[in-house]
Amino acid sequence: MKSAANRIKIMWVFIALALAGTIFLVYSMVVDGGKWATSSKNQHLYINGTLIGAGNITDADGVVLCKTADGKRTFAEDGEIRRSLLHTVGDNYGFISSSVQNQYRTDLSGYNRIMGVWELCNFEQGSEVMLSVKSGACRTAYEALGGRKGAVCVYNYKTGAVLVSVSTPTYDPEDVPDDIDGNDEYEGVYINRVTSGLYPPGSTFKVVTAASAIDNVKDIKTKTFNCDGAYHTDYGEVKCMSVHGELSLKTALAKSCNSAFAEIANETGSNNLKKTAEDFGYNKAMKLGKLGVATSKFVSPGKDELELGWAGIGQSKTLVTPLLQMQIMGAIANDGVPVKPYIVQKVTTAAGFVSETAVTVPGSRAVSEETASDLQQMLRNNVENQYGNWHFNDGLKACGKSGTAEVESNETPHAWFAGYLQNEEYPYAFAVIVEHGGSGSEVALPVAAEVINSLTSD
Question: Which of 29, 57, 205, 259 is the most buried (most CB within 10 A)?
Fold first, then answer.
């Protein structure tokens, strides 16, 4: 009897192990089935490492950006569109790892958890992925950057649809340069600077500092600041580009006065400034559909008066992606509530079923509606009285802030311009960075204006 009981126990152990194995296998198939099905080891899907059976990738207007033809994966007919959208669409070999071609390869292959690769076997093509981008405007952004390294992004701050996403340097995926890995011209070419580029925000961060001051400094709207060319502390000074004299908060933002904003940051306080930065999205994970996005960083300066002054003007250890910079402007435009950006508009199977469609997803409120209104007035004043309405098409009511972000080794600063339109027909927010471009208002603003004007022209 004891021997029989032991055999029964052993049998139940084997049954339990078999059941656990079955559960694990089913779980793995659900979670990792797409990776298995689209593995490069599957020779019926790949030739020389290229996913040949993949469906089309198109822009928002149906322009084909990538397709399979005659057993070959090819890209848009227009060479400049191929270059401008390389980091969004991707390449054939997975070098642009954060691209749609790479991150949506399961959808493009036609695989789904229920039917496997039935769609590909029956229709000889996977699902079509429609993006929200406008390829013509992306080409304009690429041309406006003029061979300089940087990034341009634009989105609809009401819906979340990304209309422009361009990163340079770039290359033609149909004609990969032989010296791409040894030529400084292509340094960082595999990185999508829109989503993964982390830069000091420079004076564009003064918008965040202003928001925090409005919420935490009681008399900030009536208070004045005196700029004698620097903000002085016992341990050093934050230099200003000019001697501005007496300034209000509104004028200090328009003149981009470092001295005033270093003082404003110290009156606001390190903890308050950090909280506002985080409310806008700093130190928080961010995604663009299945595409990864680097986390923007704000490090609290603590009680260090000099370092807090530098942090208040967007220097110190603060780093931001162009994508978050754009979303911050969108949050202000949208009365304090950010809308999360997306770049995949729709996924349609070869059988004609829509398996995925984009939805508008509001984020957590960044600032109150009243504070957003104050910032809107100041950012509109910047363009009207500092930068000039003439940069933009009539009636767009552009709002924005330039930035000239200092970098190490006394190199030429990065040029920023970020803003949005107060226009119901074109509710667009945008961010532009030109690496080592110098003045934001002189270099990045014209790029932003050219792209926005192309998007809003009939």
Answer: 205
